[in-house]
Amino acid sequence: MSESKTPFTPISTIGEFKLIDRIAEGIECVHSSTIKGIGDDAAVIHTPLHQVITTDLLIEGIHFDLMYTPLKHLGYKAVVVNLSDVFAMNAQPKQILVSLALSNRFSVEAVDELYEGIKAACKKYNVDLIGGDTTASPKGLTICITAIGEAKKEKIVYRNSAKEGDLLVVSGDLGAAYIGLQLLEREKQIFIENPNVKTDLKGHDYTVGRQLKPEARMDIIELLEKFNILPTSMIDISDGLSSEILHICQQSNVGCVLHEEYVPIDPNTYNTALTFNIDPINCALSGGEDYELLFTIRPEDASKIKNHPDLSIIGEIIDANLGVKLHSKGDNYYDLISMGWDNLDADK
Ligand code: ADP
Ligand code: MG
Q: Among 80, 205, 218, 254, which is most exposed with the fewest C-beta within 10 angstroms?
């Protein structure tokens, strides 16, 4: 949370076309399906496979806060959250389009920094940046990213195909990004009250990192392929475990039992949640922004993933008439509800 020392070149001094040239500099498309990238009226793609297309809109002040989000991280995260949706269809992302609306608060250097993150994510996840749009805005920064992926028709996994008897599996651990956000918001308030107080996020690298620089679980898609497991349904966790389980159950017309004791929560997330007076399970259920994968598998596939450190079996799919339940550590059954993260704070 310090004032940036980098120079400030107004975008108006170079103009939109020069800015786009600058963005396009050094971009090489690696996929054979990318016939034409940046530079014409439209990009051109050719593929014999099914195309999976998703888009996300990020608005300053709603989805991100530049007081504690470095632009490079923002660019990286904006790409990652889109790719996560493509992986959640069991598809491989290949191309992205990036559109920006920029107020005069943003310099050429700021756009450079944003694209450093965007390009780093493209490199890491092997996707081509094939175009976008750039416009002025009266206020703030808006980023719209569209991701295009591909998969064989029979490999695409939807939300509406979970079956009774399937097991519910989640990757990684949950709730960390929400705790990271609480820490950043707390430091922001301290900074607003007294800019001379040093920020103290020591020991919180994991949770803050999960908030500022999440990764999409490409590795899990590869793992499932290696284990020869085709999930029966899948979704990525952007809004909290509860709401994603409810999406799968509603769309598949099934019920579910989620066992609290098996929900993976990192010790740092757990302990920090307690210091905020938040029940750690609520961070996992309603925190959101974890970008882990939640999926269902046939019970006969369970032995292939048992004891895998990145995968936890957390529940079972049951008959729709039995509802969607949380089986608590205290051996009680509650209806699983989708609270949304706004209601999480214990002391608000
Ligand atoms: P048009 O006026 O036909 O919309 P533009 O001048 O907006 O064309 O864009 C020229 C090229 O630059 C197109 O290939 C477009 O996809 C690409 N482009 C424009 N803005 C961006 C951006 N922010 N990021 C990546 N590519 C962009
Ligand atoms: Mg345009």
A: 205
